[in-house]
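Field reference: sequence -> structure
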Amino acid sequence: MTPETRAKRARTGLADPPAAPTGSSPLHSDGGWASLTSGPAGLIAERLLSSDVSGYVRFRAVCAAWRASCADPRAQGVADRRFHPRRWLMLPRAYSRGGRQRFLNVSTGECVHARIPDLRRNYFLGTTAEGLLVLCRKDGHVVQLLNPLMGQLTDFPRANTMLRTLWVDLRLRSFITVHSAGLADDLTVALLYNSSELAVAKPGDEQWTRFSLDLMGSNMKPSVLPYAGRLYCVTLKSISVVETAANRQPRLAPVADRPQAARLYPVYDDDGNLILVHRSAARGDHSSEVSTTYQAKLDTGDAVPMRGLGGQALFLSRGRSVSVPAKVSSSIRTDTVYVCNYGKNLPEAVAFDLLGASAAEPASFGEDDNANLLWSYVMCSWI
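Structure field:
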């Protein structure tokens, strides 16, 4: 069964976010919550925003007084990290409803539907680690970052400056596929595309700065890792930081030796620590699979071996991975890697307990299970 077929059959039982209260609710009665002054209302809004932007949006929707007490997300730029769709995944189009895309919060398991700008006018190139969409306009090939929940757009240089050829046809997406991307605090964005090319730029730059990661003869899977406000890139020999400075070209500076592993998958635990998962196995032979985990201590330049995933679970396929807390689904176990498959003679997923409590075993998920949505996300080659 394909991811698209599974999506059409899936019934998550999760509705859109509740409408803002109206009528004679205590929130709107004289002396009720709506009478909060701007000070307390603003503090509540900031607490909500520190957790998740969707709660903040709902808070503002309750009444005009509350909206006046806190910033309008749509008036802020993409650079404002407070309004990033942290931990929200945009699910494949087969899950959309009434022209609105479906999003899953991988921290809480909540699902919402949101209308996003018409993608028919853009090429969809990929997503960033912050949940932003990487788009390319068909009329002019300007690369844009879109916050899909807020509707904010920020322009970056044209995509043709990412290519080695000056010729770009109308099917630009066949030339550029973004595998990994991230955003630094200063709005520098790094795009890892076409397996071994890295492009770095800020808004206002005339062109992208390109780096070749020189992966010839290697089956390594590189990745861009946002961490502590900076951008890191796992390359063939090291973990490097993207350094930018005024009036200077961006450069890659090694900060840590890279664990000798072909494929490294990033996991962020509940405390924001970065964990790298090394997976090794003979092709198609799950019985020989071994996963090793490292905590990346980028301030000291070390990658320290550790056990488990800090209580997280990791869903991965050949092209995509996502880490989640086990609480989003009763069928997900902590410190477990779920290798997702698609094929007539293959299990839906194979679960590997990294703490060794059980042997590798097939895993399957019901249609109304959030784990099913995660399976569809990592298995879909195009959102």
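Note: The helical segments are 3-9, 38-51, 53-61, 64-69, 370-379.
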